[in-house]
Specification:
Blueprint: E1 2-3, E2 19-23, E3 30-31, E4 42-46, E5 51-55, E6 62-64, E7 67-69, E8 71-74, E9 78-83, E10 86-91, H1 95-118, H2 125-140, E11 145-149, E12 157-162, H3 166-170
Parallel strand pairs: 2-3
Antiparallel strand pairs: 1-10, 2-4, 4-5, 5-8, 6-7, 6-9, 9-10, 11-12
Length: 171
Amino acid sequence: TAYPPDGPAVIALLEEGSCYRIGRSSECEFRIQHASVSRFHAEIEGTPSRWHLRDTGSKNGLRVAGHMLRSADLAGTSNWFSVGDVHCLMEELDEAQATQFRQSALTRQARARELSARLQPDLGMSTLIPQTLETILQLTGLERGMVLFAAAGEALRLRAARGLDRRELAS
């Protein structure tokens, strides 16, 4: 799991016996969108006994246990390292946990497709904006949210809210 300082966590399930490129490029198997991460920042390769992490010539380096390194072997069930300014946690999962992770990801994807298909852009922005807010809240499991929107040349206005008092937001 990668934890960019200004964005959501990025989770990837890595399999032993494979090599994964880490970076911003769409060609990377573990893609992290953050300015401190190079296009092709590092590689991580799994074997039955360890994971080998290697910097591939990045600008902002690789840190393991706070030390700037060109490469490191990660052993044990839990390891922290940093790719640029992004902290990453490498955790070992047993087969049941990996299966649960995969199933959960498939369920989220199916739910996102289902909710997105319900959006009705042909009904106009006044309908689409509240629908979009409801979809986002359902996907994230949140109870409150709002959408501020402005057409070209206009000031931002509250266009949709749920779980918030519109009078308090206006003041």
